[in-house]
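Table S2 (continued). Query chain:
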Amino acid sequence: MDFRHPFITNPRIAIYYGLFWVVAATANVLVLTLGNNINVVEAIVQVCAFLLSFAVIGAAIWYVIKFSTLENNSFWRIVIAHAIAATVIIFIWIYFGVVIIKIFHPTPSRWIESQIANRIFAGYALYTIYVVFFYAVNYYNGFKEKLRSEGKLKALVKEAELHALKSQINPHFLFNSLNSISSLTMTDPSKAQEMVINLSQLMRYSLKHDQNEKVSFKQELENNQLYLQIEKVRFGKKLNPSFEIEEQCLSAEIPNMILQPLYENAIKYGVYEATEPVDVKTFSEMTETGLKIVISNTYDPDVLSKRGEGIGLRNIRERLQIIYGNPGLLKISDNKKEFKVTLTIPQKIM
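Corresponding output:
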């Protein structure tokens, strides 16, 4: 728990507090001099002795509040604590007030004796106002701290979710690649070696960047071209990747590793069971809504196994929800001959 006084942690409150009491003291002096025909010097002494002194002493009520919170104490315990604190503070306040007046007016008027009861009542009233004020400040600070804690917690949850998605995507691709390398070690060792080199570069890229980190579309594209080279070694002429990329798209920001599941999906459902060459096309352009990326692949519906939205596409939707708050940025269309995925990545307006 933070026991620092709000006047220290938030100087603006201290300034407003000081201005309020300066205005109140000025008004009180005017009332005493104009309304009660009291000498100006005596009026100033009285205001300083009782009004402004309570402004100083009353600031200590904050610490009574911090040690008597509603969450950690019973109602009656809080009432007793404030009753004791109020009595002590009022006694100190009146004592110093009388001392100050007697220092400046050795032979004071009857005001001290006649108004002492009213001052005690005023002291309890001021204490009550201070209690309400400081409780409000305390709960306001607690509310802000709660919002900050919730923000940090949401960030931690978001990071955990992203890492969970990453742990699902990377092994999925790794297992496929290792199976491809395994099948080539006996039939074509040179191609297997090429795949191992490309795979090491690809994995280095995936490990280098955090899952929620954004990279340029150029970097992400080069990484996925490397992935397609790995699969090209495996499938040969059956896989025909092509790219139509607008130059201005290359500098756009995109979450890293978000495209790879789309190419994995095209390989799994389009190329793997095909008997004829399959075109995997990538098109991108800048639109008013952001970077638009379209990845499509032809397929033979007669030999295609039942298609569903697999783990890769689900993970992309979840990542878009976490990062941009909109899973609808991923759209899918299928005309039974070509499967198309459209991905829109919002861009910051410069």
